[in-house]
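Per reviewer request, we include the raw input and output of the structure prediction for the construct analysed in the revised manuscript.
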Amino acid sequence: VFGMLDGVGVELAQARLLEIGCGNGYYAELLRERGLKQYQGLDITDAFFPFLRQRFPGFGYVRGDISADRVAGTFDVVLMIDVIEHIVTEGKLKAALANVSAMTTKGGVLLLAPVAPRGRRSLFYVRFWAEDEVVRGLPGFEIVERRGRAVLLRKTLA
């Protein structure tokens, strides 16, 4: 993950970063260790928020569903790792990606995983989205790098 961000010159110490699906703070810890100061976490549940606010003072946390909600402001880096597969309808995917696009600065990057070689359903609550399905939902973004099932995209248009 960080190799991809380093490869496109992201300076975490100066970046405004949004993590969609912040969960228990796994990436927040790694980001803080790398000098990140401007962090906003969005999660569909606030179960971990008291713990996270105590552990990471200065980081912000908001409860919301990316397919319906946006966070105030724009971000240079958006991480959406292990979230997209839980969006199971095309309409919700389109809405989620539109929200991500609106919150990403021009020139900003989106690190998204997992993105599958072919789209398919797996159980009623998991859907693996193909790269072309994701790219269609992000007009104005271009793929910069792929590593395994992770894709790094840059927003090229306002």
